[in-house]
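User: Could you go from structure to sequence for me? I need the amino acid at each position, not a summary. Structure tokens:
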């Protein structure tokens, strides 16, 4: 069973940086990050396939970078120039055999 396990997150000031990590078993085809702020729907942040194809939300392009270590089945999200509107619970998603597996989520708060 694929169970994504997230790490990272926390409190950071505007303009700061954070790195999220997510490890999953089973060599998922696609791994990525979604986020959900209070009162809002969960939205895509960035995804990457095992071949390295990436997709970013327009709101994070140029600020966030996703990459993947296939040997470790681990995906990373480097978040730079963070803004208060980036505050949310960030969830890791792993896709394997037409099924989606979600992590428990990690809180990111951007505030002075």
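Assistant: Here is the amino acid at each position, in order:
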């Amino acid at each position: 069973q694929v169970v994504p396990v997230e790490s990272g997150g926390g409190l950071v000031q505007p303009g700061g940086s954070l790195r999220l990590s997510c490890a999953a078993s089973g060599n998922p085809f696609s791994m990525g990050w979604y986020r959900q702020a209070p009162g809002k729907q969960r939205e895509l942040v960035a995804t990457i396939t095992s071949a390295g194809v990436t997709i970013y939300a327009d709101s994070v392009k140029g600020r966030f970078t996703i990459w993947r270590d296939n040997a470790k089945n681990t995906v990373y999200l480097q978040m730079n120039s963070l803004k208060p509107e980036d505050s949310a619970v960030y969830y890791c998603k792993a896709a394997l055999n037409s099924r989606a597996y979600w992590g428990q989520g990690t809180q990111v708060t951007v505030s002075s």
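One structural detail worth keeping in mind: The chain is about 0% helix and 55% strand.
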